[in-house]
Amino acid sequence: MENQTNIHQHDHQFSDAERQAVYKSIYSRRDVRGQFKPDPIPDEVLARILQAAHHAPSVGFMQPWNFLLIKSQQVKQQVHDLFKKANHEAGEMFEQETQRQIYSTLKLEGILESPINLVVTCDRERAGPVVIGRTHDMAMDVYSSVCAVQNLWLAARAEGLGVGWVSIFDRLELKKLLQLPTQVTPVAYLCIGYVEHFFVEPELKTAGWLDRLPLQDLVFFDQWENSHAEHEEKLVKYLSQAAY
Amino acid sequence: MENQTNIHQHDHQFSDAERQAVYKSIYSRRDVRGQFKPDPIPDEVLARILQAAHHAPSVGFMQPWNFLLIKSQQVKQQVHDLFKKANHEAGEMFEQETQRQIYSTLKLEGILESPINLVVTCDRERAGPVVIGRTHDMAMDVYSSVCAVQNLWLAARAEGLGVGWVSIFDRLELKKLLQLPTQVTPVAYLCIGYVEHFFVEPELKTAGWLDRLPLQDLVFFDQWENSHAEHEEKLVKYLSQAAY
């Protein structure tokens, strides 16, 4: 394991500017539902964000993902029909009339307007039945595909591309429509494209649906619900400060 | 929604150097199991990577995560005991003797050596029973917590911190040990600390367990298994080139 040639001798450290750039991608990333421009995405750029996804961590190095790129307007329309059906069902699920009212005004996808739709999947059988690290939690492979989504999302933001994750589908109908094999799960349906602008804040925050939770309330020490451990006052103070 | 004050007027674009820094974090991130140094992590740094996690995308903006920081050697030891038990079971699951042999030589966690262990959880009831975007896929909240893990992992890499995800536990026993409430799922158990060095390649690749898959074989166009669509030759060429 301690193979010398496999050790990062150079570039181990990030400069302050490089570190800031990573945080910039994290803080300025948005879930984009509108504002898509029809401009095509150059192949080099598309290849780069797919490579970023492909370099996500994966349990047992199984790399369970595939990337189904959808440009066909016909396929997009069929997927949009599935969304519309599920979204109507979703709107009815909220108990309060005000919630149903707000829900109906929300734009939750950009399937037809974004130049590229991308399905990130998980092949549960990619590396055989027994996978290192998946032996005691069979969901770990799906989590690997989610990590690929997040890598792609941050890379896309750095490329000036907006990404929106659409999850309001009957998954079985989506799987059937896309003709995915039995062992392949559709993990994320993404809409990708250049955008008019990025919002500063999540749209659901701006819409007054929910506020950002105070981070210091979400951090516990050694035991569940122990939020004010001895000697941790300084960390709690930092957590309570705005991130940027 | 088109609230002008919520639009990024500045900093919309990333410079080439900023973009490269994001890719650097993605490509040089490793799943660290050994090489941890005991050096404490400054509170400012720890707060920054937790803020990065907290700014992950979350379904319906529900922010379902908590962060349980474990420094107690006693708790770490109890968790390590759970790992040992599960890892022994795991080793027995591989069919081939050579696989069992290799498995037994792999170091798969740094629970006791890393100064901080961090449990990232998902509170399934954080935002009530009906959540925007979770109506048709109840796993979406867990995926949000996974996105938080990946944000933290990349931020940690930019801070020079190694992170390892340990998944070889009986999850119910882990949940009981950590006294998590019924509705809270432990999504990721992470070991975090400064490291002697980062490996250039994933350790399972170096060990000859699995190779990195050719990305161009994983990308399909409009239809499952359609890997050579018309007019996509240029993209396929880019996909087949090394990422870095």
UniProtKB/TrEMBL annotation, chains A, B:
Protein name according to UniProt: 5,6-dimethylbenzimidazole synthase
Keywords: Flavoprotein, FMN, NAD, NADP, Nucleotide-binding, Oxidoreductase
Catalysed reaction, written as an equation: FMNH2 + O2 = dialurate + 5,6-dimethylbenzimidazole + D-erythrose 4-phosphate + H(+)
One Pfam family in the UniProt entry: Nitroreductase
Coiled coil segments of this chain: none
Subunit annotation: Homooctamer.
EC number(s) recorded for this UniProt protein: 1.13.11.79
UniProt similarity note: Belongs to the BluB family.
GO biological process: one example: cobalamin biosynthetic process
MF GO annotations: 5,6-dimethylbenzimidazole synthase activity; nucleotide binding
Domain of life according to the entry: Bacteria
